[in-house]
Write a structure and sequence with these properties.
Elements: H1 10-21, H2 27-51, H3 57-62, H4 64-93, H5 97-131
Helix pairs in contact: 1-2, 1-5, 2-4, 4-5
Length: 134
């Protein structure tokens, strides 16, 4: 299993959730939070590329399903970078607050879902490693 930075962090996502729900909506805080998350995702993508994914080659070779999920998640990071950038641009463009909040809620849900999927993959890999000696 490769060691990859934890991006976006739970704290970053919680902060984005807080600024999303603030009334009135502070677009500068939203843009700053999105920029920080976007940069973290870029770092994460570079780390995944450098390490060849979340899993090492032995883990990938042991179970093709883990390999496919690792590849899917790597692709998803690229899509999340684009999505976060698009929402950040929408926040700058002056889109209606309610629409921006909907877009932010959707993006936050996708980011949290991705974090959960990455964690599940790593845990499944560890469980496979632990059980392989039985």
């Amino acid at each position: 299993m490769s060691a990859i930075a934890d991006h976006p962090s739970i704290d970053e996502l919680d902060h984005l959730s807080e600024v999303t729900s603030a009334v009135p909506l502070d677009r500068e805080q939203v843009i700053t939070a999105l920029r920080r998350i976007e940069q973290g995702l870029l770092e994460h993508a570079r780390g995944l590329d450098r390490e060849g994914g979340l899993l090492d080659e032995e883990d990938k070779a042991a179970r093709m399903s883990l390999f496919r999920e690792d590849e899917r998640l790597r692709h998803e990071v690229s899509q999340l970078i684009r999505d976060v950038g698009e929402v950040r641009r929408e926040a700058k463009s002056g889109v209606d607050d309610d629409e921006l909040r909907r877009q932010l809620a959707t993006t936050i849900a996708h980011l949290r879902g991705h974090r959960d999927a990455e964690a599940s993959l790593v845990l499944e890999s560890v469980a496979t490693d632990v059980g392989s000696g039985d």
